[in-house]
Amino acid sequence: MKGLLAIAALALAAGTLDPSDFRWSRALTAPRGAGPIFFDADASLFAHGGSGFAGLRIVDAHGSQVPWRPLPGVTETQPKDVPLLDAGRQGGAAVALLDLGPHGGVHDRVDLDLPGQSFIGTATVSGSDDRGTFTTLGAARVFDLRDVRRTDVAFPPSDFRYLRLRVTGVTRIDGATVSDHHVANTARRIASGFAHGRFDLGGANVPVDAIRIVAAAATYDRPVRVEVRNPGGAWRTAAVGRIYRLYGTPSPPIELGAAARYLRVVVHNGDDQPLKGLRITLLAKPRRILVEGGYSEPLRVLYGGRVRSAPDYEFARLPRDELALANARLGHLTAPAANPSYVAAPDTRTWVKRHGVVVDAALALAAAVVGLGGFLALRRRA
To answer: What is the pTM assigned to this prediction?
Structure first.
């Protein structure tokens, strides 16, 4: 009997928490329903929620802890090389056909293996399920000019089985890689601006997956460096690349994979005039959190305060198929607000560690006094 009581007490303790431990409190609202709720993490959560949102907790209207997990995103397949069929030339262009198979999945980008250097052409991608009627999916300029080379075509997500390739300006197509992770199709704008090239994302550790930089000039080709910084840290280089507009085609977004509060772009103009009409757009994939359904609403999101380990929920281990995502409701967080019941953890450091500046100043003063005493003693002897 005592063993059963002990187990019950442990289970109760695991499901409860003290709201006064958390610095920030926000309401989470959603349309009525019984399904799970998902919402997008924002700058405040990235800054104060801990690594991987380890410090995030959610409680229901009765104060009971509500399990959550990162929302499973759309599964991205690895880029795959697809054998070329019917490769040759037709009407002055190199042509080829790709067969992605009956379960080829969704794709939105083709990277072409084109031979030679110093070429300029246009690549067109069309899709079909029966090899009879083809739908044009996208077209892009492809070229190789000194150290600038572009041989990819991005298009809206498609699940066509067959892709027909047509490329002008080259002798042949040697290969093709199909993927579904093109940043322009999977990320969304989180900030944009003109000319100044500096951004404050509102909180530390905000993810930035890519940056698109476009100028108003008809043609240009400039090296760029992207730097990021979190509060208290130094600037560091997140990416280097080139921005260009050649033959009407702008450069693709530069992939970053950074997490910071501050970002700046340095364009190396050399002896040229600075680019006019420079527009910078920061892109990031949504980081979404899925909250288990069936709890008394409204829910409250708590985070910040003392450092804590990540929660351990059964909900986070369930297979994707068990999550009833078809009934998931889009939730909205209220603005960050200080938790009125928050009580800061007591500072258990020694007096010396808590007053390091005072101790350092006292030691410096003592050293100065000793030095001055030695100097005066030497003068008396002289």
So the answer is: 0.73
242 C-beta neighbours (distance < 10 Å), count: 15
How far apart CA 74 and CA 105 sit, in angstroms, is 11
Q: If you average pLDDT over each of 105-109, 202-206, 307-311, which comes out highest?
A: 202-206
Residue 351 three-state SS: helix
Q: Print the SS3 string covering 232-268.
A: CCCCEEEEEEEEEEECCEECCCEEEEEEECEEEEEEC
CATH superfamily of 80-180: Galactose-binding domain-like (2.60.120.260)
Tell me whether domains 80-180 and 188-284 share a fold: yes
Please tell me the distance from the alpha carbon of residue 108 to that of residue 116, in angstroms, as a whole number: 25
* Torsion angle defined by CA atoms of residues 318, 324, 325 and 331, in that order, rounded to the nearest 10 degrees: -100
Q: 315 in helix, strand or coil?
A: helix
Tokens representing 114 are: 């084109």
SS3 216: coil
First to last CA, the chain: 89
CATH of domain 188-284: 2.60.120.260
Domains of the chain, by residue range, sit at 17-73+287-338, 80-180, 188-284
Quote the mean pLDDT of the chain. Answer: 86
Each residue of 312-364: pLDDT tens digit?
999 999 888 778 888 899 999 999 999 998 887 665 556 555 555 665 666 66
Instruction: Specify the pairing of strand 37-40 against strand 329-330.
Output: parallel
Instruction: Give φ, ψ of 268 to 5 degrees.
Output: -90, 105
Cβ atoms 288, 36 nearer than 8 A: no
| Burial class of 253 by CB neighbour count within 10 A (0 to 12, 13 to 18, 19+) | buried
- Say which residue the tokens 């997956």 belong to: 209
Distances (CA, A) of 146 to 120, 150, 208, 221, 222: 12, 11, 30, 11, 13
Q: What is the predicted pLDDT for the residue at 68?
A: 96
Confidence of residue 13 (pLDDT cuts 50, 70, 90): very low
From the list 172, 160, 166, 162, the residue with the least C-alpha distance to 139 is 166
Q: Tokens 């991987």 map to which residue?
A: 52
